[in-house]
Specification:
The chain is α+β, with helices and mostly antiparallel strands. It folds into two domains: 246 residues, Creatinase/methionine aminopeptidase superfamily (Creatine Amidinohydrolase, Alpha-Beta Complex), CATH 3.90.230; 65 residues, Arc Repressor Mutant, subunit A (Orthogonal Bundle). Helix content is 40%, strand content 21%. The chain is built from ten helices and 18 strands. The strands form five sheets. Strands 1, 8, 9, 10, 11, 17 and 18 form a seven-stranded antiparallel sheet that branches. A hairpin with a 2-residue loop joins strand 4 and strand 5. The N and C termini lie far apart (128 Å).
Length: 434
């Protein structure tokens, strides 16, 4: 039994040792597994946290992209209009409905379809109009007595070139900047070397144009610092607005002129203690506008009488009025600065090589758009006056000297471009500035 007991004890001891050793091993193994699991879980947490941080960064980037504000124009303006409207859809002008017999056009499906087909043309002229609006808004903000007229014109024209992304005949200035003073009604811009300075008592007509693919926006306004001229400016502004309201498809041009004169001559202005009856300048008119043609054949009078011709669907018109404290009649005077190649001129042989060279420059840079001597200077042309006179004498180029009322009188001008769309009338150049 003793042996048996010993053996049993031995066996028990062996079992205890094995159990103990197994227990230790199991404990050690289980502890090892716990450490591994803890390490792996901490690694997993780190990975999850890293993934979450990356996701947050991406969300922040996405949010920052979404919050990106649209591009805004600088001051002074320098960003091209096409960059401000990445959709390439430009804003409409002021819409006015037709009256009376043309009311049906508003809801006509046929006329709406016609407008849809003409949308590219409308969009081009609206782009030119948006350039005009932004440039004139800027120019109004910097106008003050003491400005050199040459500096004023060059600032305005260079701003147009930037905003319209000037590109030869496809996009650019439509005609020279008119900045006629006081008794000069139109067609004056300083030639190179002119030292004329804008004065406090001046009445300045600022008339400039823009064009895209030959579609011209012609718009003008008058600037006077002295408030005594306000009634004169108001007369031409309201007369222009009246002409716009009266214009429309199948409207006779003479009827528009009669309405303009009635409003214009209801005003009077007192200057230096003397009262003047405001008069419409009877030999100045508005006009129809065609592609690359500022005067397309039809004239819009600003006095009663005149043509019985009707306005037609799809036509562009410049509705412009001139109010005068003088005789109400202009004549050519002063040194010429404006020129324009005749629209319908055919081939005319030229003998002077310099005239041929100058004509090539005109054809390339202006075609049938108006230009001035400063523009030729800018292109590097020199000693061209004799050649330019030769082109004028041959009837290829038409000079447009300044148009003046009597000295001592004052003239104001306002102008807008309108489009007689099939369904409505669009005042393309209208903005919130006037």
């Amino acid at each position: 039994m003793a042996t048996g007991i010993v053996n049993n004890e031995v066996r028990v001891g062996e079992n205890e040792e094995s159990e103990t050793s197994n227990g230790i091993e199991k404990l050690e193994i289980s502890n090892g597994n716990d450490e591994v699991s803890e390490n792996s879980s901490s690694m997993q947490r780190d990975e999850d946290e890293g993934t979450a941080e990356v996701a947050k960064k991406k969300k922040k980037k996405n949010k920052s992209k979404k919050k990106k504000e649209p591009l805004k124009q600088t001051d002074p303006p320098s960003i091209p209009i096409v960059e401000l409207f990445p959709s390439r859809e430009f804003p409409e002008g002021e819409i006015q409905q037709y009256k009376d017999d043309n009311l049906w056009r508003t809801t006509s499906e046929e006329k709406r379809e016609l407008e849809r087909l003409e949308r590219p043309k409308y969009n081009a002229v609206r782009q030119a109009a948006e350039v005009h609006r932004q440039v004139r808004k800027y120019i109004k903000s910097i106008l003050k007595p003491g400005l050199l007229m040459t500096d004023l014109c060059e600032t305005l024209e260079n701003t147009v070139r930037k905003l319209i992304s000037e590109n030869g005949l496809q996009a650019g200035i439509a005609f020279p900047t008119g900045c006629s003073l006081n008794w000069v009604a139109a067609h004056w811009t300083p030639n190179s070397g002119d030292k004329t300075v804008l004065q406090y008592d001046d009445v300045m007509k600022l008339d400039f144009g823009t064009q895209i693919d030959g579609f011209i926006v012609d718009c003008a306004f008058t600037v006077a610092f002295n408030p005594i001229y306000d009634p004169l400016l108001e007369a031409s502004r309201e007369a222009t607005n009246t002409g716009i309201k009266e214009a429309g498809i199948d409207v006779r041009l003479c009827d528009v002129g009669a309405a303009i004169q009635e409003v214009m001559e209801s005003y009077e202005v007192e200057i230096n203690g003397k009262v003047f009856q405001v008069k419409s300048i009877r030999n100045l008119n508005g006009h129809s506008i065609g592609p690359y043609q500022i005067h397309a054949g039809k004239s819009v009078p600003i006095v009663k009488g005149g043509e019985q011709t009707k306005m037609e669907e799809g036509e562009f018109f410049a509705i412009e009025t001139f109010a005068s404290t003088g005789k109400g009649y202009v004549r050519e005077d002063l040194e010429c600065s404006h020129y324009m190649k005749n629209f319908d001129v055919g081939h005319i042989p030229l003998r002077l090589p310099r005239a041929k060279q100058l004509l090539a420059t005109i054809n390339k840079n202006f075609s049938t758009l108006a230009f001035c001597r400063r523009y030729l200077d800018r292109l590097g042309e020199t000693k061209y006056l004799m050649a330019l006179k030769n082109l004028c004498d041959a009837g290829i180029v038409q000079p447009y000297p300044p148009l003046c009322d009597i000295k001592g009188s004052y003239v104001s001008q306002f102008e807008h471009t309108i489009l007689l769309r099939p369904t409505c009338k669009e005042v393309i150049s209208r903005g919130d500035d006037y």
